[in-house]
Structure formats: structure tokens, C-alpha cells
Amino acid sequence: MTERASGVRRPEEFRDVYHRVYREPPYHEDASAADSFAGQLAEHAALPGFTVTTVRDGDALGGFAYGVRREEGWWHPRAAAPGPRRLRGPLFYVYELAVVRELRGRGHGRELLELLLADRTEPYAVLAASNRAPARELYGRWGWVKAGELTGPPDGVDLLARPLAPAPTSRGAPLLDRAGAPVADLDHYS
């Protein structure tokens, strides 16, 4: 069952899941990267607007997603260029989505993200995704579009954006943001 919270219980579980997921290709991160993640998670959990969603496999944490509200003017510090105009207001930045191998292919990743983004008041959510990661293709199918790129290392990481609470669309119609503008405009990095 997927749950949402505003804090982190048992942070060592999050570190363990992170390590299990990100030691795999294409990331190949070691235990020190998982330790750095644990420190970053603790810092982010103390910020206003922090939200986390989890899925459990029995008693063990099997996956999580978390993000933080970012105020107007924030853009990823490693972005190769300034954020698109539409993304210069407040936004929700998704820092991590991780699901252990044994639970993949069951819809948990999408469920974690959807619950994380439900009821958000920001007009857009943004996340970073490696072009080499299998999740990158899933994000596109879930409505995320390229809004920028990060400078390396690692190379090949895109910033993806998605409107929150979009206007209803008909089949084949473009995805629109709250103002009725096509989301595809984000591809132009204006």
C-alpha cells in the first residue's frame, strides 16, 4: 500500500533502498553515494513543503518518492540554462523516485509519483532523469516533457516538467497547463 507523509521515519531504510536501486546500471553508485543521499534526505526533510510517499513490501520499505516545494525563481543549480518562463514561479521538485527491483513492473513507481503530486498547489512539478535509465521512457509516457538539461557529471541528465492539475484534455489533444497553454512549449526552453 502506498502512503504519503510529511516526514521520514526510519531513515536507514531509505538509505538502503537508495543503495539497492542506484548501485545498479546505469548509475553504479557505491555505499558512499548512499551515505550522501541519506544526508541530503535529512536536509530536505527539514524544509517546508517536504513530502514523501512510500510503498512497503511486507515490513520492509520497497520504494519511495520525495520532493520539496521550491519558491519562485528557483531552478536546478546544475541546469545548463535558465528555466523556461513557465517554470519560473513556484514549483514542486521531485528529488527521488526509487523502487527495488523485486517490486518493479507492478505500477508502484507511477503510484508513488501520482500520490506525491496529488493536491499540490504549485503549477508544475520538475524532476531530473538520466537518459540511460529505464525510468526515462516511463516519465515520457506519464506526461513529463523535457524542460532543460543538467551539466555533468553524470552526463545525459534531462530536467523534465509536468503541469499539476492540468486542464482536462480529449484523446489526441495536447496536454495543457492551468493557463491553457500547450505543455510542449517547454521543449523550447524559452
List descriptors.
190 residues; alpha+beta; 4 helices; 7 strands; 24% helix; globular
Describe the protein.
The termini are far apart. The chain is an alpha+beta fold. Residues 167-181 have low confidence and may be disordered. A 7-stranded mixed β-sheet has the order 1-2-3-4-5-7-6, sandwiched between helices. It is built from 4 helices and 7 strands, in the order βααβββαβαββ.
For the report, how would you describe the main beta sheet? 7 strands, mixed
Secondary structure tally: strands: 7
Assign a percent range to the helix content: 10-25%
Content-based structural category? alpha+beta
Please provide a brief summary of the model:
24% of the residues lie in helices and 26% in strands.
Write the layout of secondary structure elements.
Elements: E1 2-5, H1 11-22, H2 31-45, E2 51-57, E3 60-70, E4 91-99, H3 108-117, E5 124-130, H4 134-141, E6 145-149, E7 157-163
Parallel strand pairs: 4-5
Antiparallel strand pairs: 1-2, 2-3, 3-4, 5-7, 6-7
Helix pairs in contact: 1-2
